[in-house]
Input
Amino acid sequence: MRISSAALPLSLLAVLAIAACGGGDDGPTTPPGPSTITISPATSTLTFIGQTRAFRATVRDAAGQNVTAQVTWTSSDPAVFTVDGSGTVTAVSNGSGQLQASTAGLTANAAVTVEQAPTVLVVRSGGDQEGIAGSALPNPIVVQVTDQGGTGVSGVAVSFAPGEGAGSVNPQNAVSDADGEVSAEWTLGGGSFGSQSLRVSIQQGAQTIVNARAVPETPIPDLAIEGSLRLSRDDPSSLETIDVTVRVANLGNAATPAVFPLTLSVDGTVVETFELDGLAVDERVNLTHTLGPLDAGAHEIAFELDAAGEIDEWSEDNNRASALTNVTSQQVIDLEQSVTVSSSTVDEVLLFRIDITEAAQEALNVELSGGSGDADMFVHFGERPDNHYAYECLSGNAATEELCQMVPTRVGSYHVAVHAYTAFGPSTLTVTVGGKPVETFDIEVVFLDNGTPSQDNIVREAAERWESIIARGAENYDFSVSSQANYPADECFDGQPLVADVVDDLRVWVTIDSIDGRGGAVASAGPCWARPIQFTDSDVIWLEAVLGRIRLDEADAAALETRGQLLSVVVHEMAHVLGFGTLWELKGLLRNPSVPSSPNADTHFAGPLAITAFDAAGGTNYVGGGKVPVESGARPGSSDGHWRESVFEIEIMTPFLAPGTEPLSLVTIESLADLGYGVDLTEAESFTLSSAGAAAMAVPKGPVIYLGDDIARNPITLVDQKGRFRGVYYNRRR
Output
């Protein structure tokens, strides 16, 4: 559209007219270049020599815009502070001065002050001297007051204060010299020998302690018990002994007599006197003595050196040490014996012990029955745990009808704890071997993707192998009742079905499909759901797996079946589902794990039953570290979850399966027992460590199958005995 000039505003016409004219005055212009300069910060105080601080110069033109210009920095007194070409100031000595920045005839100034702040006290000489008690130390105590940078600060008031019984000092107060130093003469206290202390401080807050050793003019020994007595356990029972360890030292400046006495007393009565060999100056010795059993109740255990005071020594105050222990009553129960048990005290724990002299593969039955109220029962083989919640069998029904069946019956001691959840009794506690049916352990195999009929049968055969090894069933888990949530589909892995029925005892989903083709990953396996149990005021106690999965690569499965090795692979994988290498950490049995970043760790399995079996297989000669050795190397999926290949060589639970025999050893079976499973020890196959294995030097021989990356990264859902969700466990191999 065309607009005529008549339609334009008069003001716009005027502008257009001016723009159309040539020549004319353009008006005043802003001169270029710097117009002002400023410094930031305008003032600054540095508190220690050598401290630096950056200053910034800002140059602007007349319009107030920043311009780039070459700035020259100058210190008015380089003896106080210096400045470099970038404006960084360094403190040199106390004082004040001006920092100047200049450019193009312009200057700006900032005030800089250096004022040392006394912050540290350093003992320069005279510390840790030895001197005659009651006399001045050979050398003065020299202390320096410094700033944060370590330069001495002059003119600071310093105070000296000897500790109790530590003599006197002269002067008690002094002012630091030009180097920040003060000195004082310390006369040691004459009332005792040994360590004495002197506190040095300044008003600004810094302080330090100077130590010295006071010795007698004529050298004599000083027998002492260092630290407290150490007891092998703080809660022994009336049937148990205690190992008591004491540390004896000679803190004097002369050797002790060739023989000196040490007495052990209980509740003030001497029960043992030891004749110890003499100690040189600063020599120490540990003595451990097995004491007891002691009667139930509180007891004071004490060691005392030279109780008769016949040895001249620095001090008698350090010759005695004691410890208190409370011994709990424990009663022995014989086989086929019944005892009456009751308690009127809530939370009382009654202890019993069963001593077995003849082993049997049959179950040891410990039964509590009859009476009113509610008692829980706990049974454990071996050393008695510190807390009954750590026992192997946990029977916590709502009434006093409890049964623990320990399979097999082992030679040794079984401990029974009866906990009064409420007042209960009179009830009968009975112990028998055999004669009662033991629920079998059932593994339900569910194929999500079948292999060939023969491959499916091999999987079932592997399940039957483990059913024959695990000799005691677990508690059924009912996913269908209203108080317990269903297990959602795809919770553990894609394609996993919904679970809304009863599982007895373990359900294993099996998939035989393509993973990555022949020669790659052979299999993966692990649990999906585990049974924790939790009593009031107890930590969560982890029990058996309920759900798990095994995945086999179909190409590898076909090749393995042809070579006759598929059964060994599936038996290996099903062990992971049961908890081998996958539930160890939840049970606190894995030591020094290597994953994720400790490839050189001495990883080992600390189950006591597996350790005993390892020793019986030749492990008493093992010199490679902790027992039982576990594969390390920090390789996710193989490390921390298999026996160490360089030790076990051909055993079925190493990361490599070699052609030929792959024995399922007693060590592996007992590791399942350490996890809480009842096992049949007669199902173990013959296995002995080679001399190379005992030396941890063996290597795989010939063609092998690598199963190292076979532990599935499944999330393991944890629920308690009432179906309450307790969390999801992810092992560190994810």
In short: The mean pLDDT is 89.
